[in-house]
Design a protein that fits this description.
The structure is a homooctamer of 228-residue chains. Chain A is α/β, with parallel strands linked by helices and 228 residues long. Chain A contains nine helices and nine strands. In chain A, strands 6-5-7-8-9 form a five-stranded parallel sheet. In chain A, strand 3 and strand 4 form a beta hairpin. In chain A, helix 4 (108-121) runs parallel beside helix 9 (212-226). The termini of chain A are far apart. Chains in contact: A-B, A-D, A-G, A-H, B-C, B-D, B-E, C-D, C-E, C-F, D-G, E-F, E-H, F-G, F-H, G-H.
Chain lengths: 228, 228, 228, 228, 228, 228, 228, 228
């Protein structure tokens, strides 16, 4: 009941398969894998495939991922992100552009979850790693790569300062994803989260700690709507 | 000494078997199973059965449950709720009606503990699952099922918003049970608990995080007293 | 009593006058007086009186209360509770019984708000003051006065220990109302609130700090439903 | 509304007038009025008017607003929002659509600041008030009014539950603005903020407590970019 | 480096054996066993025995206790308290009287550590268990047993209410020892600790969570000094 | 000193005059002056004087103190401590010795309240000011003055380090009184209080922030009992 | 700037004038002006002038500053910093170089206190304002101005991100001074302070919120010692 | 992603090998070993050795240390500090002097990490252990050993009082490193950290909990710059 680290978001909001969801909410249903039987995931995925929907599960353990791969040879298993995804055969070309920036390499799993979410959502995505604020030139040299994005996701732990700096470079929303990377006074990501909420950049908004899926989902909505 | 997750409530309030308790407090004694020898539980249950009382233990591990089942073949072991219960042969018909609602499937163990408590207390109970606020129609379609209850127990983690919504639909007490379901800024259930305490619905009260037993006990008191 | 802005609860939940509310929620609408123009309160009260409903406003300042008294000579102004109330001419006899206990005299304003709420709701109420835990005999001598209540409201600040003790004496719900009475480590009532949530008595539930109205409302619902 | 020093966001990020800012960041500079001499604001506004830019100051006290109105007869002073604004004569037609929802009337000042920000940014805006979760039908009847917005801003204090409910109705970003409305366990808006960060709706992001300007700015960016 | 649960107190204050300590501080040195080599403990004990001092180690693991018992056959190993103790052959008769009360059986390990500390210090001690506040008669029947003590130690978790009640019965210091017994809103013992610090009884003081040794040490000082 | 409402402790525990209290609890009743009518204080004092008891009121405002002085010419008004006291004509010689140490001059009001409490209780007291840890020689030169006390009260804000240092010099209980002196990370005295609770000295116990009365009361109990 | 009682640091550590302090601690005594009689400050300053020491008082109110200016015509009153200072006639040339950076104009009072402290200490100081992280080019253009400093003081509120960025540009200690500038989730400067403590730059250390004096004192020690 | 206890600091700020770093930041790059492949560390070390740089990795597990030792026979593995270090053959004589003090033996791992950092940086270092405040004479006897240091690092958990005491003895910066040593109210080192931030000594600054590397790095910068 008391669970550790989930980065996905629909844990407490399980649905019966809701095939009109795409119309109402913009995207089909996503399976939150933690605490769910692999048989259930397989059943949901088969129904989604029948509907021509792409399939996506987050927080999938190695054992479950193996079972899913056996059932769905075409599926894409990302062990760093802990996701499993099946592209729809009817998927059109990807649209828009979202950049995912990380402060350090330890933030990679959360960033990967955001990347997989963007791929599932049909949005072009670019990962730019290790541009933390203590090496300010590293970020500066990469600005041209993300200045034209529809939205920027910034994944950072510790002091959570990167979103404010990024916010000063772009004219699009910056979605800040605090991570639990850090120790001591990082308070499990709370210090980064509070810092991001206090950002002096006007275009920074924040999601829960380690919520890579949510960051990706929001950015995808923005990009998709813009290019509709 | 430092213990993890208990959902029951009398841990710190162990009694010698107090056979007049039913008269004074409305219900016979409940055994908090955590940290108690199975032999002690068996001894207490035998004494309660002699008195014609129903028996109920919460926080019973799988090993203890197995030993109890061997001793008491008629006992009811609920592994999701982690409870073990023996109905009294003198039990009358169940009275009243309490609805137990959950926001998501992860809240099920806490809800089950409340359901078992209601069964032990002799109160009719209805479990309505997965009616979290992000799918508002799901709750709306079920209102007729719980509108006539004597009390409603709402079990929810994460943002803990469901009790406020339920409170607007009913003219009975809503007992909010926050759960430790969530991650990051959920702070082990504190975010849900604070949200519930700030509910703008006037008929919402709150118990401790994961305290399914306490929620069930309070609702049972209300239902029993109403139908006395 | 060190209080924030208000002890009442519908601040964030303002309604257009909702005359069917009584049917759906058990009681007519209550006016949260803080931050509301006295002219608006007068207008709402006139409409409620036309409907034959009782009128009740919480968090009414002295200036507003004076204006209300001028307009409604029959109104009852309680300066300790900061409420203003007009009884309905169609009001039937009061029903049930709710006891309101305080730990100390400083808790009186919150207790009075609960008492006024019970009066408005048509429920018999008894105020028992100054029975804090450090003088255990004081409570003990009064048990016979509240043992037969439909619900007990316990108002206490500082360590918030009184609800647990009361819970051991009665077979009805104990609604704990923490108050902001205290200093230093009382953290504005948070210490009392946390203590009450951790109560080892199974029949204790909790509402927000200084929420006398909410405590009264919940107890009134329980009493009214029981005597319907 | 119990507010700290300010609801606007660029307090710590004062600029020399940066006339290229519009190009880099999407919008011209905004003056954070708190702690700034009115003479400075007047000087900045004159420079911005020379550049054909719209002018906007947040957190403007009544005294400063009066001085600004004397200097700029064409200016728009909003006392509820505490803003002062001068439209550009070169302003084109407003574009897009953003809905601003409040849970209760006490949230109005923060919502008004968001509304003024949207007006300054040249985005069509719709204010929908008093649709808090404890009266679920009130929101439901208004869904058709905001379902086609480019983004939805949800302003709520206390338990902060409204953004999750709204998130289930729309396929656009929901920008949650927690307010300091509440008392006791609301912890000055922290309870609402934590609740929003734990939202089970995938399309909810969060800004600082009482940050109406930031909410409006983000929504405006999304709407402007979509309709470019 | 990050350590879980220690109840002893000299962890951060390790001494070279300081044989004059008894004179300056009232008692000889105590060995904090956690993170200390058993060989070191043995060496210290031999030196203390040579000096005719009693030996006492807290937080001794089962493995270390076994090694100590092999070396010192006369030693007293208390597995519940996790202590190991060797009485001095020169020990005089015990003096004074300290009562150790617990709210529930889960508080026993902390209470036992206090009992062992009192034994080591040469003070008579009486353990009174399971007198938590939700069963107020249980405490009342035992008052005569501790009313004449030199000091009372009250060990309690959850809401931490017991010290206030005990404080009203005695004319001696009540040393409150909060325990980490509890779940959810108990915050690892912080709720109990805050409650005890807010006690309305004037004779209650508080030590760290689970600090049975410290509680015992303080009570022993009071008793010893009184009977010197 | 930034204080909340009060430094005294019986706020929530008001009594009817309880003339046997001295026998049961060691001392007669103390009047907590805050929020109490001066007429009530006068009435209580007259009754206490009739019984030959000493009178003591804490948290007495300047206006109330003036009225008390007019009524009781023999009374002792201490404006720094905010207390008013009348010695009993039957008072015997003072007994014992308690030292009250402060870290800095800003801690004086809390220390004075402790001093007045000791005077009322009939215990000899010595005030030693400004011996904070950053000037370690200052304390060292005064050790001989308090080494023979029955108990030592240490009043300190900011980092609250002084009790640990004092604890190493004496063989009696050290009662640590944290004060709200400090700013920023002192969190209104919480930092000092947490530091004191973590003291590595075994003879340190803690009371609430700014609780000078409670510190004095506990020390007086220890001294009185020792010299009975 | 929302400040508590004071930004200076010796409040709790008052000394009798300690004329050897300069030798032992590197600098003469500083007067913490808050809560100190102006007559006392004048007396201390006269004694310091006799010794040929420079005089410095922090947290001096306008009224006290006026009295000091009347007494000491040569004194330097800085109303923004709230300091009063008298240079020693024997003062040698200033040495070293310390840069004081602020994130925004609201941080100016804390920065000024640091500047005055550096002037009193005889260290060259340079103030660089408004180089907050959301305008990254502003800082970059000024790096050459502080790259050769002996130490850099960074004063910032809100998210407190600036020290990390500055840390990446210099090979000297960066002393981070969090300020209480901000609102809502800034928690009175705690968010900035936590962010700074989690800085990923290895050369960043932190002092208390609004502690401009302490930041200046530490930087002065480093600069003075380097140029001795 | 959620990581326990790291004492090093560049976790979130991973670099490609940056050979000019020494010039810009004063020291070559340090490898944060946690979560990094040993093959990567070996590759980085080989490149650093080619450049004639000293090599240093913190948070190195036993398994990784063994592999590093096999590859680099000349490397120095410190298991208490969990570091691995290779001295440069071109290293000059060590300069300056830094003292590292601990309050208790449990603080040793953090102190050792600081010692290794100082060795890597080429600074003379002296370790003084077990001088916690509860035995004040222990520190006093050692003052002459660290009074002439360029900087003092004080490593302490629990109440974190030692830096204030040390600060009163020296005229150089005191870098306080709080440790997670403690239990209960130590809150994983937060109590020590808050205490240190509130230090009444003007020359104390603070780094993150258990951040031995950061403490050493800062002290080394101060010492190196002073002796350049």
């Amino acid at each position: 009941m008391k669970q550790g680290e989930d980065t996905s978001v629909d844990k407490n909001c399980e649905f019966d398969l809701d095939v009109e969801r795409e119309e109402r909410c913009g995207f089909p249903e996503v399976v939150y894998g933690q605490g769910k039987e692999v048989a259930s995931i397989i059943r949901i995925f088969h129904r989604q495939l029948e509907q021509g929907q792409p399939c996506f599960a987050t927080r999938v353990s190695a054992a479950k991922a193996k079972a899913l791969q056996t059932e769905f040879a075409q599926g894409l298993d990302n062990r760093l992100a802990r996701t499993f995804r099946i592209e729809s055969p009817h998927a059109g070309a990807k649209v828009g552009k979202v950049a995912v920036l990380t402060a350090g390499t330890s933030d990679a799993p959360v960033a990967e979850e955001a990347m997989e979410t963007l791929a599932w959502a049909g949005v072009n995505a670019l990962l730019i790693q290790d541009v933390g604020v203590a090496g300010p030139e590293r970020l500066r040299k990469r600005v041209h790569q993300f200045a034209d994005a529809d939205a920027v996701i910034v994944v950072a732990g510790m002091e959570g300062a990167l979103p404010s700096v990024v916010g000063g470079y772009v004219a699009v929303p910056v979605i800040a994803v605090p991570t639990s990377v850090g120790y001591g006074a990082s308070l499990g990501g709370m210090a980064a989260m509070l810092g991001m909420l206090n950002s002096c950049a006007s275009n920074v908004c924040v999601v829960n700690i380690d919520a890579g899926f949510k960051g990706g989902y929001l950015a995808a909505l923005i990009a998709k709507n813009r290019h509709k």
